[in-house]
Amino acid sequence: MRQHSGIGVLDKAMTVLHAVADEPCNLSLLCERTGLPRATAHRLAVGLETHRLLIRNAQGLWAPGPALAELAATAKDTLVDASSYVLPRLREITGESVQVYRRDGLDRICIASMEPPTGLRDTVLVGARLPMTAGSGAKVLAAWADLPVQRALLAEAKYTDRTLSEVRRRGWAQSIAERESGVASVAAPIRDGAGTVIAAISVSGPIDRMGRKPGARWAADLLAAADAIQKRL
Protein backbone atom coordinates (compact mmCIF):
# COMPACT_ATOMS: atom_id res chain seq x y z
CA MET A 1 0.00 0.00 0.00
CA ARG A 2 1.51 3.30 -1.14
CA GLN A 3 0.72 6.66 0.35
CA HIS A 4 -2.07 8.59 -1.34
CA SER A 5 -2.27 12.34 -1.88
CA GLY A 6 -6.02 12.44 -2.37
CA ILE A 7 -5.48 13.71 -5.94
CA GLY A 8 -6.74 10.78 -7.96
CA VAL A 9 -5.01 11.35 -11.28
CA LEU A 10 -1.68 12.09 -9.58
CA ASP A 11 -1.86 8.94 -7.46
CA LYS A 12 -2.70 6.84 -10.54
CA ALA A 13 0.18 8.36 -12.49
CA MET A 14 2.55 7.52 -9.63
CA THR A 15 1.18 3.96 -9.62
CA VAL A 16 2.08 3.69 -13.30
CA LEU A 17 5.61 5.01 -12.69
CA HIS A 18 6.19 2.53 -9.87
CA ALA A 19 4.81 -0.30 -12.01
CA VAL A 20 7.55 0.10 -14.63
CA ALA A 21 10.36 0.89 -12.17
CA ASP A 22 11.48 -2.70 -11.60
CA GLU A 23 10.86 -4.08 -15.08
CA PRO A 24 9.57 -2.58 -18.37
CA CYS A 25 6.08 -3.70 -19.32
CA ASN A 26 3.46 -3.61 -22.06
CA LEU A 27 -0.09 -2.39 -21.62
CA SER A 28 -1.50 -5.73 -20.44
CA LEU A 29 1.19 -6.12 -17.78
CA LEU A 30 0.79 -2.48 -16.79
CA CYS A 31 -2.92 -3.05 -16.15
CA GLU A 32 -2.11 -6.18 -14.15
CA ARG A 33 0.45 -4.40 -11.96
CA THR A 34 -1.61 -1.27 -11.35
CA GLY A 35 -5.15 -2.64 -11.30
CA LEU A 36 -6.16 0.24 -13.59
CA PRO A 37 -8.63 -0.12 -16.47
CA ARG A 38 -6.95 -0.56 -19.85
CA ALA A 39 -8.01 2.84 -21.21
CA THR A 40 -6.88 4.66 -18.06
CA ALA A 41 -3.50 2.92 -17.91
CA HIS A 42 -2.88 3.64 -21.59
CA ARG A 43 -3.86 7.30 -21.30
CA LEU A 44 -1.63 7.87 -18.28
CA ALA A 45 1.34 6.01 -19.80
CA VAL A 46 1.12 7.98 -23.04
CA GLY A 47 0.86 11.23 -21.07
CA LEU A 48 3.91 10.36 -18.98
CA GLU A 49 5.72 9.42 -22.19
CA THR A 50 4.95 12.87 -23.62
CA HIS A 51 6.71 14.42 -20.62
CA ARG A 52 9.63 11.95 -21.01
CA LEU A 53 8.88 10.40 -17.62
CA LEU A 54 8.34 7.13 -19.50
CA ILE A 55 9.91 5.91 -22.74
CA ARG A 56 9.38 2.94 -25.05
CA ASN A 57 12.40 0.69 -25.22
CA ALA A 58 13.56 -1.30 -28.25
CA GLN A 59 10.93 -3.96 -27.52
CA GLY A 60 8.17 -1.36 -27.37
CA LEU A 61 7.78 -1.73 -23.60
CA TRP A 62 7.33 1.21 -21.28
CA ALA A 63 10.33 1.95 -19.06
CA PRO A 64 11.45 4.85 -16.82
CA GLY A 65 12.29 7.90 -18.93
CA PRO A 66 15.23 10.33 -18.92
CA ALA A 67 13.23 13.12 -17.28
CA LEU A 68 13.21 11.11 -14.05
CA ALA A 69 17.02 11.08 -13.95
CA GLU A 70 17.14 14.78 -14.82
CA LEU A 71 14.79 15.62 -11.97
CA ALA A 72 16.62 13.32 -9.56
CA ALA A 73 19.93 15.04 -10.36
CA THR A 74 18.58 18.33 -9.06
CA ALA A 75 16.65 16.91 -6.11
CA LYS A 76 17.98 17.54 -2.61
CA ASP A 77 17.00 15.33 0.29
CA THR A 78 17.83 17.15 3.51
CA LEU A 79 17.44 13.96 5.56
CA VAL A 80 20.00 12.14 3.42
CA ASP A 81 22.35 15.12 3.63
CA ALA A 82 22.03 15.32 7.41
CA SER A 83 22.53 11.55 7.76
CA SER A 84 25.73 11.67 5.71
CA TYR A 85 27.37 13.73 8.46
CA VAL A 86 26.24 11.46 11.31
CA LEU A 87 26.40 7.87 10.01
CA PRO A 88 30.22 7.71 9.67
CA ARG A 89 30.67 8.46 13.37
CA LEU A 90 27.96 5.95 14.37
CA ARG A 91 29.63 3.28 12.25
CA GLU A 92 32.96 4.10 13.88
CA ILE A 93 31.47 3.81 17.38
CA THR A 94 29.62 0.55 16.78
CA GLY A 95 31.83 -1.14 14.20
CA GLU A 96 28.62 -2.39 12.54
CA SER A 97 26.40 -1.57 9.57
CA VAL A 98 24.27 1.56 9.98
CA GLN A 99 21.18 2.62 8.04
CA VAL A 100 18.43 5.20 7.84
CA TYR A 101 14.93 4.08 6.80
CA ARG A 102 11.90 6.07 5.67
CA ARG A 103 8.38 4.61 5.57
CA ASP A 104 6.57 4.29 2.25
CA GLY A 105 3.09 2.88 2.80
CA LEU A 106 3.50 -0.57 4.34
CA ASP A 107 7.18 -0.80 3.36
CA ARG A 108 10.34 0.93 4.51
CA ILE A 109 13.04 2.16 2.18
CA CYS A 110 16.73 2.44 3.02
CA ILE A 111 17.75 6.00 2.11
CA ALA A 112 21.25 5.96 3.62
CA SER A 113 23.61 3.15 4.55
CA MET A 114 27.22 2.57 5.58
CA GLU A 115 29.05 -0.68 6.23
CA PRO A 116 32.12 -1.49 8.34
CA PRO A 117 35.29 -1.82 6.25
CA THR A 118 35.98 -5.39 7.36
CA GLY A 119 34.27 -8.42 8.84
CA LEU A 120 30.84 -9.97 8.40
CA ARG A 121 28.19 -7.34 7.60
CA ASP A 122 24.46 -6.89 7.37
CA THR A 123 24.36 -5.33 3.92
CA VAL A 124 21.32 -3.19 3.13
CA LEU A 125 21.71 -1.22 -0.07
CA VAL A 126 20.40 2.30 -0.51
CA GLY A 127 17.04 2.03 -2.24
CA ALA A 128 16.28 -1.41 -0.79
CA ARG A 129 12.60 -1.83 0.05
CA LEU A 130 11.99 -3.94 3.17
CA PRO A 131 8.75 -5.06 4.83
CA MET A 132 7.42 -3.22 7.87
CA THR A 133 6.48 -6.46 9.59
CA ALA A 134 9.84 -7.30 11.22
CA GLY A 135 13.03 -5.66 12.42
CA SER A 136 13.86 -2.82 14.78
CA GLY A 137 13.58 -0.15 12.09
CA ALA A 138 10.12 -1.43 11.19
CA LYS A 139 9.03 -1.31 14.83
CA VAL A 140 10.16 2.28 15.24
CA LEU A 141 8.37 3.46 12.10
CA ALA A 142 5.24 1.48 13.00
CA ALA A 143 5.20 2.74 16.59
CA TRP A 144 4.70 6.33 15.42
CA ALA A 145 2.57 5.58 12.34
CA ASP A 146 -1.13 6.40 12.28
CA LEU A 147 -3.63 3.82 13.54
CA PRO A 148 -4.83 2.49 10.13
CA VAL A 149 -1.24 1.72 9.16
CA GLN A 150 -0.57 0.04 12.51
CA ARG A 151 -3.67 -2.14 12.17
CA ALA A 152 -2.68 -3.20 8.67
CA LEU A 153 0.83 -4.11 9.82
CA LEU A 154 -0.15 -5.92 13.02
CA ALA A 155 -2.18 -8.44 11.03
CA GLU A 156 1.07 -10.01 9.77
CA ALA A 157 3.82 -8.51 11.94
CA LYS A 158 6.21 -10.41 14.17
CA TYR A 159 5.57 -7.80 16.85
CA THR A 160 2.43 -6.84 18.74
CA ASP A 161 0.60 -3.68 19.71
CA ARG A 162 2.10 -4.08 23.18
CA THR A 163 5.57 -4.13 21.59
CA LEU A 164 4.88 -0.82 19.85
CA SER A 165 3.70 0.72 23.10
CA GLU A 166 6.96 -0.35 24.72
CA VAL A 167 8.95 1.16 21.83
CA ARG A 168 7.18 4.50 22.30
CA ARG A 169 7.78 4.37 26.05
CA ARG A 170 11.52 3.72 25.97
CA GLY A 171 12.21 5.52 22.68
CA TRP A 172 13.98 2.74 20.76
CA ALA A 173 13.48 -0.81 19.45
CA GLN A 174 15.59 -3.92 19.06
CA SER A 175 15.22 -7.18 17.14
CA ILE A 176 16.90 -10.57 17.26
CA ALA A 177 16.73 -12.68 14.07
CA GLU A 178 13.39 -11.13 13.06
CA ARG A 179 14.11 -9.80 9.58
CA GLU A 180 16.94 -12.19 8.84
CA SER A 181 18.35 -15.23 10.61
CA GLY A 182 21.51 -14.50 12.57
CA VAL A 183 21.07 -10.71 12.46
CA ALA A 184 20.35 -8.38 15.39
CA SER A 185 19.56 -4.69 15.23
CA VAL A 186 18.64 -1.59 17.23
CA ALA A 187 16.77 1.44 15.91
CA ALA A 188 15.67 4.87 17.12
CA PRO A 189 13.32 7.49 15.68
CA ILE A 190 14.52 10.53 13.76
CA ARG A 191 12.28 13.57 14.23
CA ASP A 192 11.87 16.77 12.29
CA GLY A 193 11.85 20.25 13.80
CA ALA A 194 8.22 19.84 14.89
CA GLY A 195 8.98 16.59 16.71
CA THR A 196 7.26 14.34 14.14
CA VAL A 197 8.94 10.98 13.51
CA ILE A 198 10.06 11.00 9.87
CA ALA A 199 12.56 8.13 9.76
CA ALA A 200 14.43 5.50 11.76
CA ILE A 201 18.18 5.18 12.28
CA SER A 202 19.48 1.66 12.82
CA VAL A 203 22.60 -0.33 13.58
CA SER A 204 22.65 -3.99 12.59
CA GLY A 205 25.06 -6.89 12.51
CA PRO A 206 25.61 -10.56 13.39
CA ILE A 207 24.06 -11.69 16.66
CA ASP A 208 27.45 -13.14 17.63
CA ARG A 209 28.82 -9.57 17.78
CA MET A 210 25.69 -7.57 18.62
CA GLY A 211 24.56 -9.91 21.38
CA ARG A 212 21.06 -10.89 22.48
CA LYS A 213 20.41 -7.49 24.08
CA PRO A 214 21.76 -5.04 21.50
CA GLY A 215 19.61 -2.21 22.86
CA ALA A 216 21.46 -2.20 26.16
CA ARG A 217 24.69 -1.76 24.22
CA TRP A 218 23.86 0.70 21.46
CA ALA A 219 20.53 2.46 22.19
CA ALA A 220 22.17 5.51 23.81
CA ASP A 221 24.48 6.00 20.82
CA LEU A 222 21.57 5.66 18.39
CA LEU A 223 19.50 8.21 20.29
CA ALA A 224 22.43 10.61 20.23
CA ALA A 225 22.87 10.06 16.47
CA ALA A 226 19.15 10.62 15.87
CA ASP A 227 19.32 13.84 17.86
CA ALA A 228 22.36 14.99 15.84
CA ILE A 229 20.46 14.41 12.58
CA GLN A 230 17.43 16.32 13.90
CA LYS A 231 19.63 19.30 14.79
CA ARG A 232 21.11 19.31 11.28
CA LEU A 233 17.60 19.25 9.80
Automatic annotation (TrEMBL):
InterPro entries: GAF-like_dom_sf, HTH_MetabolicPath_Reg, Tscrpt_reg_IclR_C, Tscrpt_reg_IclR_N, WH-like_DNA-bd_sf, WH_DNA-bd_sf
Taxonomy, superkingdom: Bacteria
SMART domains registered for this protein in UniProt: HTH_ICLR
Transmembrane helix recorded as keyword: no
Keyword DNA-binding among UniProt keywords: yes
PROSITE patterns (UniProt xref): HTH_ICLR, ICLR_ED
Biological-process GO terms, alphabetical: negative regulation of DNA-templated transcription
A GO MF term: DNA binding
Name assigned to this protein: IclR family transcriptional regulator
